[in-house]
Amino acid sequence: MKVTISRKAHFNAAHRLHRKDWTFEKNEAVFGKCNNPNFHGHNYGLTVSVTGKIDPETGFVLDVKVLADIIRDEVEIPFDHKNLNLDVPEFQDLNPTAENIAVVIWNKIRKRIHTDFDLEIVLNETDRNFVTYKGE
């Protein structure tokens, strides 16, 4: 029997959707106002879900406190109130789209969660726009 536990979190961050190898005109055409040279920000919502078997000794799939600490260490501290393009090493050469942010978060958390568990990330960029990533 497998059960899914989830933990919600949030962080505020600025970014600019931009490719260094494209002209300003092409970036503007593809990314529009999200290509603002002065950046723009979002209040990101994050849901991290872990699916696995319940441990018969603890009754937990995973202690939610452990999951909360992982999210704090891997996402909230490095991303909150940061400029993703300038302050977060993973985005130095990676366009910080919601899709890429979700994959980066998944990879950072995956290394801290045992491979017996499935991991899913849902990243809300706005109330209406969100990305789900479950790994490859």
Automatic annotation (TrEMBL):
Parts of the chain that traverse the membrane: none
One matching Pfam family: PTPS
Record-listed Zn(2+) binding positions: 15, 40, 42
Name of the protein this chain belongs to: 6-carboxy-5,6,7,8-tetrahydropterin synthase
Coiled-coil stretches: none
Pathway(s) served: Purine metabolism; 7-cyano-7-deazaguanine biosynthesis
GO BP term, example: tRNA queuosine(34) biosynthetic process
Catalytic activity, reaction form: 7,8-dihydroneopterin 3'-triphosphate + H2O = 6-carboxy-5,6,7,8-tetrahydropterin + triphosphate + acetaldehyde + 2 H(+)
Originating organism: Flavobacterium cutihirudinis
Alphabetical keyword list: Lyase, Metal-binding, Queuosine biosynthesis, Zinc
Classification lineage: Bacteria, Pseudomonadati, Bacteroidota, Flavobacteriia, Flavobacteriales
EC number per UniProt: 4.-.-.-
Entry superkingdom: Bacteria
GO terms assigned for molecular function: 6-carboxytetrahydropterin synthase activity; metal ion binding
Location of the active site: 34 (proton acceptor), 81 (charge relay system), 125 (charge relay system)
InterPro entries: 6-PTP_synth/QueD, 6-PTP_synth/QueD_sf
Enzyme class of the recorded protein, top EC level: lyase
